[in-house]
Design goal:
Elements: E1 5-14, E2 30-39, H1 58-68, H2 76-88, E3 93-103, E4 112-118, H3 120-126
Antiparallel strand pairs: 1-2, 2-3, 3-4
Helix pairs in contact: 1-2
Length: 127
């Protein structure tokens, strides 16, 4: 297997308002993001310690937080699309897996989400 590296963000609670809910619906109290980014292994297997040798993910996280505040959103899909576009603005990202879920779903329990994987060709098309 060739060398592959990822940057992973798990259970990141984002402050966002998504959906329209009637009086008998369960309104989610949190939206959680999992993001797995494939990057060049040269950005992980480094000879010297320093931010100039790695992928700096902080600007992407800041952009995701900014996007979450652009709402309200009608759908999770729209926010996910915007997150993928934000990923494409970083040429170091070769592929991305995005999973966004809301909780609770009903009776104070459960999580419901959707996932999306995009490869280098898709990201390059956005670039």
């Amino acid at each position: 297997m060739p060398c592959q590296s990822t940057v992973e963000l798990k259970n990141f609670e984002i402050p966002v308002e998504i959906g329209t809910y009637g009086p008998d619906y369960t309104v989610p109290d949190s939206h959680l993001l999992d993001l797995t980014l494939t990057v060049d292994p040269a950005l992980v297997l480094i000879d010297a310690d320093g931010m100039d040798h790695v992928f700096d993910y902080d600007p992407l996280i800041a952009e995701i937080l900014r996007l979450s505040q652009d709402g309200p959103y009608a759908t999770q899909e729209r926010l996910m699309t915007r997150i993928v576009h934000a990923c494409a603005r970083h040429p170091q990202i070769e592929a991305a897996e995005v999973f966004l879920r809301k909780t609770p779903v009903a009776m104070g329990t459960g999580a419901l989400g959707l996932g999306l994987s995009v490869d280098r060709a898709y990201l390059d098309g956005l670039r």
